[in-house]
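User: For my dataset I need records formatted as: sequence, then structure tokens, nothing else. Please produce one.
Assistant:
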Amino acid sequence: MRGNGSSGKTVRQAQHGTRGAAHGSTTTTAVTGDGEPGLAWEQRLAAAWSRYDTLPASEFRAVIEALAAELPADSAVAAFERAGAFDSTGQPARAVPLYRIALERGVRGARRRRAKIQLASSLRNLGRPEEGVVLLSPELDAENDELDDAVRAFLALCLADAGREREALSLALGALAPHLPRYQRALGHYAHQLSTPAGS
């Protein structure tokens, strides 16, 4: 799943990024001194994802592959973007090993957390929700960022599929409560009750 779903739409949408490859872009122009993609490459990637809904799946994957090929062979970002392209076009089984490679190679910044969310979602879609629970549970204690609610949402889905529905509902309600104009305290209390074993 790309940011939000593993067998359908993604949080980021497609774009068309073949221009750089077609005009002879090379690894040296695609990356910065520390091996991370440069701004121009990121902009072309964003442009490619903006066209996700307009391209056939195979063509979209080819666009992302062309961009990924501009990065070094051992690039964590390249592995992550390839995984996202497979994931978003309904091929989670091909995405999972690439997400793992991205994490093993030390993918940085927002992509690190997104890789865990998207990997967990793919594992769930492959009938392995328990692995998703193991992957995402530590993220509940990670430093807060804009992906906190996404972590809780996809962890809740994994928990539900793993037969832990009360925990899943607790997480979902806990994530929802701060966004309500009223009843935040009550809903937060009920969410906590759902996660507390009976008799505690």
